[in-house]
Amino acid sequence: MVKLIVNAMAFNACWFGLVLLGNTAVPFALAWVVIHIALQRESLQELRYMASVVAVGAASDSLLIASGVLTFEGAAFWLPLWMITLWFSFSTTLNHSLAILRRSRLLRTLVAFTGAPSSYLLGSQLGNVELGLGLPATFAVFAVTWFILLEIFSRIPIQNATPPELCPES
């Protein structure tokens, strides 16, 4: 349980650092990612899973940029480095502090339609990201996007990376 709390706290520290400080916080967030991987029993499998999450998440945010939903200062078409690092930081949670989302579509839906959009909205208030649509439309786009993302993330195969007490094999 302590490992799960540390995992969640480390991600939140990365989130705030990256949103508030941008690229300045990248080395600290990447240090957490490296430590996280090093502590895994199956480091290579965890890294493969994380890379899949980052690729899908970064592609999704890139589509949001291309469609004008997100605008990052100094990044016309690509995600800034700090945002890609944020995806790496987020990927450390999915087999650990957020592993329960794999088992529960209801929880995935609640997170997708509340937590994820709220994270982007808070990020826009704190950091150097702007939202291109009005609040209701932006919230709806993020909710649908994250519903799809969490469904994809819950279906990416993993082996021996998920704590058995949270996500037993069916």
TrEMBL record:
Keywords: Membrane, Transmembrane, Transmembrane helix. Pfam families: DUF2878. The keyword Membrane applies. InterPro entries: DUF2878. It comes from the Bacteria. The chain crosses the membrane at residues 15-35, 47-69, 75-94, 106-127, 133-153. Signal peptide: none annotated. This is DUF2878 domain-containing protein. The lineage of its organism: Bacteria, Pseudomonadati, Pseudomonadota, Gammaproteobacteria, Pseudomonadales.
